[in-house]
Design goal:
CATH class: Mainly Alpha
CATH superfamily: MFS general substrate transporter like domains
Order of helices and strands: HHHHHHHHHHHHHHHHHH
Helix content: over 70%
Strand content: under 5%
Distance between the termini: 41 Å
Structural class: mainly alpha
CATH topology: Growth Hormone, Chain: A
Largest sheet: none
Radius of gyration: 20 Å
Shape: globular
């Protein structure tokens, strides 16, 4: 692969930003849009917001292995164009929904065709020289975070200015531009290592998850996604009802808070190379995981919106270390020729964190109040940190003695 590999990396990262904006952009105004559709009880709105937010990544996680195999067989360009076209149509249709059930059905369809993330990871592994993979993985992770960042910010601003239906039209147009970018600039790549059509996806997943380190790191990726998306659906309602914020600015404030967390997360991801020169990767992951748990507690006890936003941003910074390092450690644990398939499968499993995060947070908020969401998320990160210390930090430091 000649120097054009970088152009492909930049294109895939740009598509990832656009796709992330489209899928995640509804978080900053979704509970408020559901109220417009007839859900006026805060608890019921929180539950529906979690359901509508979580069902899309759920379907992505279930369908992504299918699209990864199709990309392996037919080439990623053709499959990516089909995915983006279907997203463009279904996202645009959300602007015309009249009931929560209609919105839910469209979000399910978006998830069914939303498997572009593992395809992007597989393309990166395919085109990137071996010594440049960590850089490419960090850039791809940063682009994923930027989609999470700009999506709620753009969605919140447009919703406050033009109404809650306008962002869906904007996101649909953005997806169309991404599809055009693939059509014009993506070459017809083919994967060197084809998946055996007789090998089931379940057997592929089992073959990777029998490796203890891979199993632990996939769980960590799952948890990181859980923490990122879990607070999202309840954040507008938490700010509105407990911090007495004017309805006119809630969506924008939520977008700004998510923007700050994502920006700091992207900065951390880009700086991974320098940090790993001074500290071991297991030690960094342990410290970051423990810090995130502590910061979720600090977010809850803050009496002001800006205090909440500051600690949310710091938590985002530490989360930015977790995913790139976990992916790097996974790549070291599997054979080179299987990495493309591994990352496609691993990303699908880890994506379930995006599912259970919003759904469980909505249910917990309805049953025990908004504060329980912050405390339960913090507790899960603390438990994960202990597992990381026992399974990764202690063995790695024992070898260095």
């Amino acid at each position: 692969m000649d120097s054009s590999w970088k152009r492909i990396i930049y294109l895939i990262c740009t598509i990832q930003v656009g796709g992330g904006i489209t899928i995640i952009g509804v978080l900053s105004f979704l509970p408020l849009f559901l109220a417009e559709l007839g859900l006026h009880d805060p608890g019921e709105a929180a539950m529906w917001a979690g359901l509508v937010s979580g069902v899309t990544p759920c379907m992505v996680a279930l369908s992504a292995p299918y699209w990864s195999r199709k990309a392996n067989q037919l080439g990623p360009r053709k499959v990516m164009m089909f995915i983006l076209f279907t997203l463009m149509v279904t996202v645009g249709a959300c602007a015309f929904t009249q009931t929560p059930w209609q919105l839910l059905m469209l979000r399910i369809l978006q998830g069914v065709v939303g498997g572009y993330v593992p395809i992007g990871l597989a393309i990166i592994i395919l085109v990137t020289p071996e010594n440049k993979v960590p850089w490419a993985m960090g850039l791809y992770q940063a682009s994923m975070v930027m989609g999470l960042v700009f999506g709620p910010l753009m969605g919140g601003l447009v919703a406050d200015l033009l109404g809650y239906r306008a962002p869906f039209v904007m996101f649909s147009a953005l997806t169309g531009l991404c599809m055009l970018g693939i059509y014009l600039f993506m070459p017809n790549l083919q994967f060197e290592h084809k998946v055996d059509a007789r090998e089931s996806q379940l057997s592929l997943i089992k073959s990777f998850l029998v490796i203890p380190r891979v199993r632990l790191l996939v769980g960590l990726l799952f948890l990181c996604n859980f923490g990122i998306t879990g607070i999202g659906p309840i954040l507008p309602l938490y700010i509105k009802h407990y911090m007495h914020m004017n309805d006119e600015f809630v969506a924008t404030i939520v977008g700004i808070i998510i923007f700050g967390a994502g920006l700091f997360s992207a900065l951390a991801s880009i700086s991974i190379g320098k940090i790993t020169e001074r500290l071991t990767m297991p030690r960094i992951v342990f410290t970051a995981t423990w810090a995130v748990g502590t910061l979720f507690i600090l977010q809850y006890i803050m009496p002001s919106i800006w205090g909440l936003g500051i600690f949310r941003a710091i938590a985002g910074f530490f989360m930015g270390f977790i995913t790139p390092i976990a992916n790097t450690l996974i790549s070291k644990a599997v054979p080179i020729e299987r990495r493309g398939i591994v990352f496609g499968t691993v990303s699908s499993v880890a994506m379930m964190g995006n599912v259970l995060g919003p759904v469980l947070s909505g249910m917990i908020a309805r049953a025990f109040g908004y504060g329980a969401v912050f405390w339960s998320t913090a507790a899960i990160f603390f438990v994960a940190a202990l597992f990381i210390y026992r399974s990764l930090v202690i063995p790695s430091e024992s070898k260095s003695l």
